[in-house]
Design a protein that fits this description.
Layout lengths: L6 H10 L9 E5 L3 H11 L4 E5 L2 H11 L3 E5 L7 H10 L8 E5 L4 H9 L4 E4 L4 H23 L13 H17 L7 H8 L3 H11 L4 H18 L5 H7 L5 H12 L3 H26 L1
Parallel strand pairs: 1-2, 1-3, 3-4, 4-5
Helix pairs in contact: 3-4, 4-13
Length: about 290
């Protein structure tokens, strides 16, 4: 169902709703109702980059591919509903930082509580206005910017927030290429890294501190862990096999590092993801049975 609003309200809001960043934030919009999806795309596309998805499975795939700034999802959908989608997003170490806004035709306490249980950041039930929806989206994206700024002072860097000059960009591209090529080598250390970069260790340390606010080997560890998440999500091997693929000498060290960075162990992540996917699949089969 599409919210019905006076055109004057939307027009008045549009003049005040200004996105100051030169790079527009990306929103994945998930809704099985095409008319509603088109309506909301038109509402947001002047301010944000919109990626559409027709159901939860597609929304999850789009989120994994694009890592958006926000996901807006309807709750009632076939195949995978918005609640299951939100649960999977919040269970994924690579995606759980993304805020999720759930839209529902049922504006009841029960649905509000269900949204909270799966980790939704915002919940709106009909009737709601365009002005309220735009304000909620703007606020959650602004809050995410503040959080990024806070964590960047604690050695957490989002690449899209770095103001990169040409020499810095060349340096960072070279760093990424080398680390990805050497990631599986457990013996890849600071000395080898500096040699590949044609710099002494001290110079390399200074470069990383200046450009990224972290040490070279901290960067390598983060890259290894994020690649491990990709491999685990794609079923590329057991936890031990993935650990060796990304350059950890033993699975115990990998598990410890994974938990320290993502707040869950690899086993907990895989079990939770598998359970959520099984629940979504059973629901999909029940829907198919009704349709048949």
């Amino acid at each position: 169902m599409i919210p019905s609003l006076p055109r004057t309200e939307h027009a008045g809001w549009k003049a005040r709703h200004v996105v100051t960043s030169q790079i527009r934030p990306t929103i994945v919009l998930v809704n099985d109702d095409k008319a509603s999806r088109v309506y909301h795309k038109r509402l947001f596309e002047k301010f944000y980059h919109i990626i559409e998805a027709a159901h939860g499975h597609e929304g999850l795939a789009k989120a994994q591919k694009h890592v958006p700034d926000l996901i807006i999802s309807s709750i009632m959908m076939p195949y995978m509903d918005g609640l299951d989608l939100c649960r999977l997003i919040k269970l994924s170490p690579a995606l759980k930082h993304i805020p999720v806004l759930l839209l529902s035709e049922e504006n009841t306490l029960e649905y509000h509580l269900l949204g909270l249980e799966v980790g939704a950041d915002l919940f709106l039930g009909l009737p709601y206005s365009d002005k309220l929806l735009l304000a909620q989206v703007k606020n959650v994206l602004q809050n995410r910017t503040y959080i990024r700024s806070h964590y960047s002072s604690k050695k957490f860097v989002e690449p899209t927030n770095i103001h990169v000059l040409a020499p810095e960009k060349r340096f960072l591209n070279q760093v990424k290429t080398i680390v990805e090529a050497e990631m599986g080598d457990a013996g890849f250390n600071l000395s080898a890294f500096a040699e590949k970069m044609h710099r002494c260790e001290r110079q390399l340390q200074r470069k990383f501190k200046a450009f990224l606010g972290m040490t070279p080997m901290e960067y390598v560890r983060v890259m290894r862990l994020k690649r491990a998440v990709q491999l685990l999500e794609q079923g590329a091997g057991t936890i031990a096999e993935v650990a060796f693929q990304v350059g950890f000498k033993n699975p115990r060290h990998f598990t410890s590092s994974f938990r320290k960075f993502f707040d869950v162990t690899p086993t907990q992540y895989l079990e939770a993801t598998e359970n959520a996917q099984k629940t979504a699949w059973r629901k999909h089969k029940r829907i198919q049975g009704v349709e048949e």
